[in-house]
Each structure stands twice: as structure tokens, then as C-alpha cells.
Amino acid sequence: MITDDRCTDFLTVLASAAPVPGGGGASAFVGAMGTALGAMVANLTLGKKKYQDVQEDIQRIIVDAEALRAQLTTLVEKDAEVFEPLSKAYGLPKETEEQQRYKEVTLENALKAASAVPYEIMERAMEAMDLHEELAKKGTRIAVSDVGVGVQFCKAALMGASLNVYINTKLMKDRPYAEELNQKVETMLQKGMAKADRIYQEVEASLK
What average pLDDT is seen over the chain? Predict the structure, then answer.
């Protein structure tokens, strides 16, 4: 399990010539860190008299953030798992017509599976941004800078994962499927980047 390793071990493997983890897994991991920062801000706000009016919201944010962090951590593993079938599909023989047809179908299915994981990473990153948006307003002021850091990590996860969708959709033969997925990614990307920038600017302004 990749995520059972220490951070230093993870980075060593990431820097190596090993095919996994790669950009998708790294995006999920960055998203998990961004979500963890949000959870930290919420935990620092929990039980504080100054923020008693938002305690119910803070408790919900903690639960949601922990669930998202776990999901993003799992997606580090899932991204590695879907790469192996894709790698094998590229290496299938194509000497006969039957082999060519089999390779085409197998590769297409593997490309779709490989694009589904980074798309899910994007979805989870968007959900994490929603929590940061709340925390920018309701979280303790002593850790508001961490909201800004966390939301930028989630933005990086969103953008990184989008590239891992595009690299797979580009090779798909099913162009209507690929183009529909690309459009969903583009829409989510534009919305998420704008939201992350808005939250960051709000945090930055509160610190100056």
C-alpha cells in the first residue's frame, strides 16, 4: 500500500523511474493534505467560546473533512491500481485482426477506467474547497492562513487531476465519450479554480 509508507518513502518512489505513483496519485495526496489542513482549522475552532455560534457547523466540517481526506488517500491507491491494466493493454500484441480488435477494446476500457479516478479526485477536491469556503468565514482567525494554504492545495489537486483525465481521453477512440468527459472536466476546472482563488484572496486580504 503506497499510502502506508512514510512521506519520505512516498517522495522517493515518486521521484524514481517507477510508473506509480505518478501525477494522479500525487494530486490525490496533495488534495488529502489540503483537506487535512481544513480539518486542523476546524479542530482548532472546536469548543472555543468565541466561535460558539458556529460550533454545529464546525463539528459537521470536521466529520466531512475526515471523510474526504480518507477518500482522497484511497484514491492515491486507486490511481496506481488502474495504471497497471492500462500499461498491459499498450503491450498487447496486434499481429492479427483478432488481436488488433482485442487490443483496441481492452485499451479503450483501460483508458476509461484510468480517467475515472482523476475525475473523482477532482470531485473530492471541489467538495474540500466548499469546506474551506466555510472555514474562511467561520474558522478561528489564528489559523486562517492555513485555510488559504489548504484551498491552494485543493486547487493544485484539481488542476493536476484534470491533466490525468486529458492524457487518457486524448487516446480514446470513443470520441463522443471523450469529448463529453473533457467538457465536464473543463466546467469543473473553471468553477473550482475561480472558487479557490476567491477564497485565497479573501484569506490574504484578512491577513494584511
Answer: 95
3-38: buried (b, 16+ CB within 10 Å) or exposed (e) per residue? Answer: beeeeeebeeebeeeeebbeebbbbbbbbbbbbbbb
- Residue 11: CA count within 13 A, CB half-sphere: 4
CA atoms within 13 Å, Cβ hemisphere of 41:
29
Indicate whether 155 pLDDT > 90: yes
* Structural domain for 114, as ranges: 18-207
One-letter amino acid for residue 131 of the chain: L
Using a cut of 0.90, tell me whether the model's pTM lies above it: yes
**121 within 8 A of 27, measured Cβ to Cβ:** yes
Residue 8 lies in a domain: no
Domain count, the chain: 1
CATH no. for residue 120?
A: 1.20.120.680
Q: Is the dihedral of CA 55, 56, 61, 62 positive or negative?
A: positive
- Smallest CA-to-CA distance from 73 within 12, 122, 31 is with 31
C-alpha cell at 139: 474558522
